[in-house]
Design brief:
Length: 225
Amino acid sequence: MPPWSLLASWMPQLIIAAGQTLRMAVLAYALGAAVGLLIAIGEMSRRPVVAGACRVYIEFIRATPTLTQLFLIYFVLPSIGIVIPQFVAAVVALGLHYAAYMAETYRSGISGVPRGQREAAQSIGMTRTETLRYVILPQSVRIILPPMVNTAVSLLKDTSVASLIAAPELMLRANDLTSEYYMPMPLYIIAGILYFVMAYPMSLFARHLERLARRGYAVAHGSSR
């Protein structure tokens, strides 16, 4: 049977799976963004133990594959009595993995704010937390946003590893249909197109933000002269 005659059967299933992939990516991204901010703040802590622990976490996560971390969460935790469903395990693994990269993005953004801003805020009586919340973080958004969107694109593509623990997402559905119909080429091409449709708009948005950031930097430095 020609593959195009099966599209009417395949596409609804693959589109639903693509929706599950997006849901997984959004939840993992939210987790990563929250944990990453905490790690970035902890890494800049004046307490050596806290800063050191955050640095070790970042280095460990960045030096080990996403798949290893996923297997640790899904296969190793049950041995100590912690059983996590496939979808949740994938969200947690991806979120904690990308938290390390987001932490570095946050740190670079916070470090990019001129030191005088901190000193000015503290001179009017702001605490360190208030300075970070009301002065530093809002100004660091311009630096942080473009790489954060690029991170979202990478995370979306990395959801495909979740198929290895049978978490419901696009690649698992494509694999299942391949096993049923023995037509890997058309199915994986369609899956690739769906990933492209989901990721490409975010890539364009990231480029737009980078252009805006460069323009804002040029205007700010031009006006300061």
